[in-house]
Write a structure and sequence with these properties.
heterodimer; A: 554 residues; alpha/beta; five-stranded parallel beta sheet; 52% helix; elongated; B: 312 residues; mainly beta; Pectate Lyase C-like; 21-stranded mixed beta sheet; 1 helix
Chain lengths: 554, 312
């Protein structure tokens, strides 16, 4: 590791470096004029063009993963989402840019590259618009230029020092904004001259497996990946370096403000990882610092996450969350119970006879009720559609159809609810009449409302149990799911049975299927000896029950 | 007719009714879902709504890289949709034109899976008449010719023109609601597929040159619309068509030299097949036993009409 250089030496080297930059730029202007980018295009893998009243932009994605987006939006030039200039909406720049994107939309992928690379800003621009147009030209030209042909020497190409004007500008800008980087650059260069180097600033660089750089390479503020060959020295300032298994560095490798990963065996010269000098107070962190910090955070987080997650699962926070969830479920079940009981009591009060007939039909012909109920549930969508088609077919029927659309489902829901409550009542009666069954204290179980309540408890107890198990946490997960499945099956089948009974008895008006007390095959009277049913109030439509039955007011 | 025959016939009728109406249900339900998504945008809030439109154009182009298959899922509620094979070396190219005040564009791509669509986003608008199709958005999609593709299309009220010729399709699923669609396969599918399915709600749907799709089985569920299927280009030794029809009409055109075997479960529906002979509950062409290419048709119809014709 090198010891820190005296300030005087660093300043001298900075001066040398800047001189090298300027001479390199001058040389480049002679060798390769800027803007000549259309000869060869960098391959695009994706492009996205958006043109609207407020904005016009393009996003490009290249083979190596680089992305560039340039957008004019409401007076602001955005490059990769960040403001990079200003213009006036509708001005010559805006119009020319929109025309270019219009052409891009009309062309295929290769055409987009050519169009963008050969785009020239319109004449007559000044002020902000001119600056914005220059930025756009520069960024597009830089992005679309082939990465390796300028920066690397392909087989047979002469080694050329190549520092493009944008890199020059970016480097000068960086050194002005971050003077500490100048010191780092000086330490990194040592006695080397920058004008004999390929210099890349502010972007990631990749040297492919079949590529070769004949000379030295300096990368500032960018990550480097080398799978091919660098004949000279490789210097990296403020970026990470990854060396592929076949990477070869003919000279020295020096890096400052980053890390080296991969195969170091391919470095012929020395490897030096320079320690960054502590930054002066108040200095802004660089992008590389931020990236390194984020990476460290992620790595630390990943290392810690298994133990943390294990702890969390058993922590008190997890228990309280389960408790809150379980209690919430219990409350939900209780509210459902209260709501259903309230509706049931209302039905018992206003429609006691209809309710009784539906309940008895469900108890007397459960198989038939069950089949009819499920058939009703499954066929209901078809009946609904058939009704729509039927009513629509006639002009007169159209107003009826408008009523039919919602009313059908309301009626079906009412029938299901009515039937479900009747079945709950039956279930409650069966429970109350069982020998040795638990009887709620202080409640007159002879009352239909009480039996309804008991039935609802039986139908909802599985959901309550699931909520209680939820408090216990994931340990009881399988039992919780089991209870929910059982509860759902019970509720759905009870609803189907009840709907069938409601349909068979025409909502309690037809008692032909209601049967007689004691004739239910249960070995007991499900309604109890004090069943309040007191006979029909309406004429029968079916066979009259036998004398002595409950329907006769027994 | 014996009692057993009568019971069997009743059973067939019941099955056909349920099956046909089930087919009729699928399209409208899906159409409804998509239309609900698109309806707020399709119902501008006032007379000045059209003037308030803000049209946007967007294009997405991607080149193939390491993809082995491409899965494409398009959900398009309302507007014009066109699909064809791409000319250049594209994985896909999608061009949208839409009112960004009313619709949100969907473009998602990751790991060989592409999702495209337009979703309505102005949920406060509930009045005045529907916009015309062209005023609700356009999507032109081009799919590459090199990467095997699984294609799933779901349309609401869409005017669709699909040319699947040249696209290497491994599977195809098309669900339309109240749409008007034409499909053709202008070039042979480079890939063979096990099955293609079309669920057509209250729509007019015409598919030409389906034989070039190279699907071993084609499933069609039609609701209350008109469906025309043309099997030009058929080359497989045997292809199966399973069609379930609700209240609409179905026309099946078969090229010359293709043997036809048709079975039917129906309820209050009509069948017109002048080139076929009836054998019990099946209809067959005279050359069924000797034809080098065969089309086996299974029909379940309820309240619909089916016509089967064969080119001479």
């Amino acid at each position: 590791m090198l010891s820190p250089q005296p300030d005087r030496t660093a300043l001298q080297r900075l001066a040398t470096a800047l001189a090298g930059v300027i001479s390199g730029v001058l040389l480049l202007f002679v060798v390769a004029p800027p803007g000549d980018l259309s000869a060869q295009e960098r391959p695009l893998v994706y492009n996205e063009v958006n043109v609207s009243g407020q904005a016009a932009g393009i996003t490009l994605e290249f083979e190596d993963g680089d992305r560039l987006s340039v957008e004019l939006r409401e007076g602001v030039l955005l490059v990769n989402g960040a403001e990079a200039g200003r213009y006036a909406a509708g001005d010559a720049l805006d119009r020319a840019w929109r025309a270019l994107l219009g052409q891009a939309i009309a062309s295929d992928n290769g055409g987009v590259s050519r169009l963008l690379a050969s785009w020239n800003r319109p004449d007559g621009l000044s002020g902000n618009a001119l600056a914005a147009a220059e930025t756009m030209e520069s960024r597009l030209g830089s992005a679309l230029a082939p990465r390796t042909s300028a920066a690397t020497g392909q087989a047979g190409d002469p080694a050329q020092p190549s520092m493009d004007p944008e890199s020059h500008g970016a480097l000068v800008d960086l050194l002005i904004r971050q003077p500490d980087r100048a010191q780092g650059l000086g330490r990194l260069l040592g006695t080397r001259q920058m004008d004999a180097m390929d210099v890349r600033v502010g972007s990631d660089v990749r040297v492919g497996a079949d590529e070769r750089i004949e000379g030295n390479l300096l990368v500032v503020e960018g990550d480097v990946r080398v799978d091919g060959r660098v004949d000279g020295d490789l210097l990296v300032l403020g970026g990470d370096l990854r060396l592929g298994s076949d990477a070869r560095i003919g000279g020295d490798l020096r890096i400052l403000g980053g890390s080296i990963r991969g195969n170091r065996g391919g470095v012929d010269g020395s490897i030096e990882e320079l320690a960054a000098v502590s930054e002066p107070a108040g200095a802004m962190p660089t992008a590389a610092d931020i990236r390194a910090e984020v990476e460290r955070g992620i790595r630390d987080g990943l290392r810690e996450s298994p133990t943390r997650s294990t702890r969390t699962a058993r922590s008190s926070g997890g228990f309280f969350r389960n408790l809150a969830s379980g209690v919430g479920g219990l409350l939900q079940t209780a509210v459902s119970f209260a709501l259903l009981l309230g509706i049931g009591v209302g039905i018992l009060y206003f429609f006691p006879r209809h309710f009784e007939v539906v309940a008895r039909t469900a108890a007397h012909v459960p198989g038939r009720s069950f089949a009819v109920g499920w058939a009703g549930l499954l066929l209901s969508p078809f009946v609904w559609i058939f009704g729509i088609v039927f009513f629509t077919a006639t002009i007169i029927g159209i107003p009826v159809m408008l009523l039919w659309l919602p009313l059908f489902w309301v009626m079906l829901a009412a029938a299901v609810l009515f039937g479900f409550l009747a079945v709950s009542r039956n279930l409650g009666s069966w429970w109350v009449n069982r020998r040795n069954s638990y009887q709620p204290q202080g409640i007159d179980t002879a009352q239909p409302a009480a039996r309804l309540g008991v039935g609802l408890v039986l139908l909802l107890v599985a959901f309550a149990g699931a909520s209680i198990l939820e408090i216990g946490g994931p340990l009881f997960g399988i039992f919780q799911v089991l209870l929910v499945v059982i509860g759902t099956l019970l509720a759905v089948n009870a609803a189907a049975l009840g709907l069938g009974a409601a349909l068979l008895s025409r909502a309690g008006r037809d008692r032909r299927w209601a049967g007689e007390v004691g004739d239910l095959g249960l070995g007991m009277d499900p309604f109890g000896p004090e069943d309040p049913f007191d006979g029909p109030a309406e004429p029968f439509h079916g066979p009259r029950p036998a004398p002595g039955s409950d329907d006769d007011g027994n | 007719m014996t009692g057993t025959d009568h019971a069997g016939r009743r059973r067939i009728c019941r099955r056909a009714l349920v099956g046909g109406l089930a087919g009729a249900m699928v399209g409208p339900v899906l159409a409804g879902a998509l239309l609900l998504a698109a309806a707020p945008a399709a119902l501008p809030s006032g007379a000045g709504a059209l003037a308030a439109q803000s049209w946007s154009t967007a294009q997405f182009e991607r080149q193939p890289r390491s993809e082995r298959t491409l899965r494409v899922d398009v959900g398009f509620g309302a507007g014009d949709f066109r699909l064809a094979a791409a000319d250049g070396n594209h994985l896909y190219r999608a061009r949208f034109r839409y009112d960004e005040e009313a619709f949100a564009l969907i473009h998602e791509y990751a790991n060989g899976s592409l999702r495209l669509g337009l979703e309505g986003q102005d949920r406060s608008s509930r009045r005045t008449s529907f916009r015309r199709s062209g005023e609700m958005g356009e999507l032109e999609l081009r799919l590459g010719r090199t990467i095997p593709t699984e294609l799933e299309l779901t349309f609401g009220a869409v005017r669709a023109e699909l040319d699947l010729g040249g696209i290497p399709l491994r599977s195809l699923s098309l669900t339309t609601g109240a749409s008007e669609g034409t499909l053709r396969v202008s070039e042979r599918n480079p890939e063979a597929m096990s099955s293609a399915s079309f669920q057509v709600g209250a729509a007019s749907f015409s598919a030409r040159e389906l034989g070039r799709l190279r699907a071993r089985e084609i499933q069609v569920e039609a609701g209350v619309g008109e469906v025309r299927l043309d099997f030009e280009g058929l080359e497989a030794a045997e292809t199966r068509l399973k069609a379930t029809l609700g209240l609409g009409s179905l026309e099946i055109h078969v090229p010359a030299g293709v043997g036809i075997h048709l079975t039917r479960s129906s309820f209050l529906s009509s069948l017109s097949a002048p080139d076929l002979e009836r054998r019990g509950n099946t209809w067959v062409s005279a050359d069924w036993d000797t034809a080098p290419r065969r089309l086996r048709i299974d029909l379940e119809t309820a309240l619909g009409s089916v016509t089967v014709t064969r080119a001479r």
